[in-house]
Structure formats: C-alpha cells, structure tokens
Amino acid sequence: MATRIDEEYQQLKKQVHSHLIERLEEEGIEVELAEKAQLEHFVQANVGQYVASQRIPLATSDQSMLARETLDEIVGFGPLEPLLDDPQVNDILVNGPNSIFVEVAGVLQKAQTRFIDDDHVMRIIRRVLAPLGRRLDESSPMVDARLPDGSRVNAIIPPIALDGPSISIRKFTQKHLTASDLVNLGSMTRECLELLTGIVQNRRNLLVSGGTGTGKTTILNLLSQFIPKDERIVTIEDSAELQLNHPHIVRLETRPANAEGTGKVAARDLVVNALRMRPDRVIVGEVRSGEIIELLQAMNTGHEGSMSTIHANSSKDALIRIETLLAVNGYDAGERAIGRLIGSSLDVIVQLARLPNGRRLVSEVVAMTPTRDDPYQMETLYRAKELDAQDMAGAQL
C-alpha cells in the first residue's frame, strides 16, 4: 500500500513540476535571474492552486512538502538537495531512480528519498552540467564534474550504465577536521600526531596510502598545515579539495578534454610545470598515472618534503602500485633501478584503514630504510593498537 501511495505521490510531483514550468513561462519569470524568496512564494501559491483545482486530498504538511520539493526541482538538484545540505552526509550514490545511498560516519545506508524515473535522474544530471558546459550523451556517456560548492560528481548513463543513469557525489566540506578532532575521534593517538608533525617539519617525502573512503585527503590536508610558513608550495589536484592556510601557495587543477576531445591538461603536465615554478614542496592530491614519474624525480632532486596520496591497502601494496604506474606509463628501467628510485625518493608511508564500524584511522607509519640488497626495507614507526588486537584475534582463530 505504501509503495502505491508513494508512486502516486511521485506522479503528482511530476504533474506539479510540469504545471509550474508552464506557469513560469506564462509569467515570463526567468529562474536564473529571480530571487529565491520570489520563487518560493510563487511555487507555494501555485502548488496550492493546483491541488485545490484538481481536488487532490492532501494534508497541509504534505502540501508544504510538495511545494518544498518542487522548489528544489526548479532551483536546485531535486531529491539530492536535502542530502547536499546535510552536513552528516559525505557521499551520495544514485544507482537508479529508486536506489539512493548515502555514507554517514563511514557507513553506507539507504536514503529515504527517490527520483520519479530515469528521465528525472537525467534532468538533474543536466542541471548539474549546464553551467559547466560539459557534455553527456550516448556518444559521450560518462563525465566528471564539480558542483559550485566544490563537491565532485561522476555521472554515467546508458548504454554504458545498464540499469539506468547513475550519479556518484563526493561532497566537499569547508569544515575540515583538526588535529585535535582526529585524536578525539580515535583516528590517531597523540603520539602518532607528534610523529607526523615532526616528519613534515623535517621535510621528509611522504605518501599517504589507503583504500577508498579511508580519509586520505583529510590526512593530507592536516599534514600540510604543519609546513613552515616561509616555504613555497605548489599543489596539483584533479578536483581542488586541499585547503591550506598558508601564505605562499599556488594551486593547480587538471582539466579534462572538451567536447571536441582537445584541451586536456593532465596531472603529469602540471607536475612538470610546477617544477619550473621554484617550489619548496610539491603536493599532488593523488597519484594515479604518469605524474608519479615526475613526482618521484622531484622528490629526488631538491624538493624534499613533497607529499601525495595513493590507493593501496597496505604500505607494501603502495610500493607495488607505484611500480605498476611507472611500468604502464613508459618508465623504461630494470626492476632494480625502479626499486632504487622508489626507495630513495620516498621517506615515509602513512597507511590508513577503515574499521568495520566505519571509523577511519592511521593504521601504521613506516619509514623507508633502503639497503643495497633491499630497496624496500621498512621500519615501523607507529602501529595502531586496533590492528594488533585484530592480529591477535586472527591468531586465536
């Protein structure tokens, strides 16, 4: 019964939205130029008139909700609007009109909202892309974009997405966790914080490693705060997320190809250019392609204290991933030479993990202590007690 009523409500929303679009055109109101208060009054009045004229039995609270959601459709991002406004939501995942999930405190859960149908999802995707001049159609069925607040958006549509259009949003927050917040939340101990602070201030080359959603950007953002104020920093990101309170910083961002397939500026191009800008440190938001070659060489040639992040589930996996990135991006050298380049470039790897309950933490900090025979020799500087407890439990099993 609830499903049928919900379907009726979704169809009512569709009808009311179409009616409001017609009324806006009749009145000559341009949504982009009108004030929100004016639009809010217009929507409330016209929704009330429509419900009365159609003799739709609707409680006052339901009519207010209908007006609010219709306003979101006209000036915002529809069902996504309340999720974007909710500070507790970190990620929004739309798997289809009836399947929206959110991540709250590291745990995925189904959201109590939905789209009307696939066309509704497509309309919101186009609303996101319209001011960006980005293209999404059958010939170009996937796109990365960024909302005005900095949130990252990925959209993919049929025929690539078999079950209908899909949206993934990683929200951008202006309120970053402080060192004290991370200690209080149990993400790291005070001992670990002091260790990391010393590593940054002593200009050690550092790599933050972890799986998806482990908080790599959060930790990189935190560590960057400890860079001395008299140093010049150049940051390179696919989507600008780092917020460094630093007096001498240049921020660079990659650019995708345009509709004609030209104009792309990759992270590798920006790292090469950054080295010509006399930086003391280079910070790359994430290494995922050929930029690793230039970053390692920068770390080896006078840019000590540089940092980046990488997707990997352990410190050793991070080194293997770097090897793979070097190989697939044309770094022509033998296994021994590659090992020596990595071992001599990186000083410290900070490994992150996410526990089953969603809590993120620094699982270990290791120093690279390469030898002639083993360029990947490591020394553990810090290890989280939670991991030791897991290892003991595993041994008992």
UniProtKB/TrEMBL annotation:
Domain AAA+ ATPase: 202-356
CDD domains for the chain: VirB11-like_ATPase (cd01130)
An example molecular function term from Gene Ontology annotations: ATP hydrolysis activity
Pfam family, one: T2SSE
Domain of life: Bacteria
Family, per entry: Belongs to the GSP E family.
The protein's name in its UniProt record: ATPase
Species, as recorded: Marinobacter vinifirmus
